[in-house]
From TrEMBL:
InterPro entries hit by this protein: DinB/YfiT-like (IPR034660), MST-like (IPR007061)
Region described as Disordered: 19-38
Provenance organism: Streptomyces spinoverrucosus
Lineage: Bacteria, Bacillati, Actinomycetota, Actinomycetes, Kitasatosporales
Pfam families for this protein: MST
Annotated protein name in UniProt: Mini-circle protein
Source species, domain of life: Bacteria
Amino acid sequence: MTLMTDQPARWTQATVYPDMWVDPDDDPRNTEGASPDGELATLQDFLTGYRMTLRMKCDGLNAEQLARRSVPPSTMSLLGLLRHLAEVERDWRNWITDGDPLPKLYGKRDADFDGAVAEQAVVDAAYADLEREQAATDAALAEHADLGERVGREGIAVRELMVHRIEEYARHCGHADLLRECVDGRVGQ
């Protein structure tokens, strides 16, 4: 017996490994040669990979799909994740500085998710905000090549900040996996 459901059928673009997002030869996260040398390069490589994974999970969706809150009653959506990570990147810069904190991008708590509405202008702004905030945080951290250096009012080690950034993106990539599958059935790592 076949049950009727409004859930999308599971699918992938991969033909080699059905549990992958794309085939290994088509995966922009795959690089030729040896892994990076050194702790900083390794941390940056992992961060880049998770950032790319998040973008891949959002690719090919329209504003309505990106804003869809796929797991009620949660307010989380793929668009909300983009906005949240832009907000988090800005907040990490506040950890680095001794100066006055930068204001929140989207206002009050949870506004990053609550304001993730199905409008193309909101989508475009979210991608621009994320790109800008990532670049600004990367530039601020580039001034501190010693991973053991303690920065900001809290005296957080640069290494801890880098690991926390990787953890944040990795956790939200897991959310993005589930959200994307609920939106259009696409699965894969």
